[in-house]
Amino acid sequence: MTVPRTICLGFLAVIAIGTFLLWMDDTIYNGSLGNPVTALFTATSAVCVTGLSVVDVGQFYSFWGQLCLLGLVEIGALGYMTANTVLLMLIGRKFGLRDKLALQKSLDTAGLGGVMPLLRSIIATMALFQLTGIILLMIVFVPDWGLRQGLWLSIFHSINGFNNAGFSLFPNSLVAYTTSPVINFTMSLLIIFGGLGYQAIMELYLWFKNQFTRDPMRREFSIHFKVVGSTTIFLLLAGTILFFVTEFNNPETLQGLSFFGKIQAAWFQSVTTRTAGFNSINVGEMTHAGIFITMILMFIGASPGSTGGGIKTTTSRILVNCTKAALEGRDEVLCYQRKIPATLLLKAVGVLVGSTCVVFFATLLIVLIQPKLGFGNVFFEIVSAFGTVGLSTGITGSLSIPSRLVAIATMYVGRVGVLLLMSALLGDPKPSAIDYPEENLLVG
Question: How far apart are CA 103 and CA 97, in angstroms?
Answer without folding.
Answer: 10
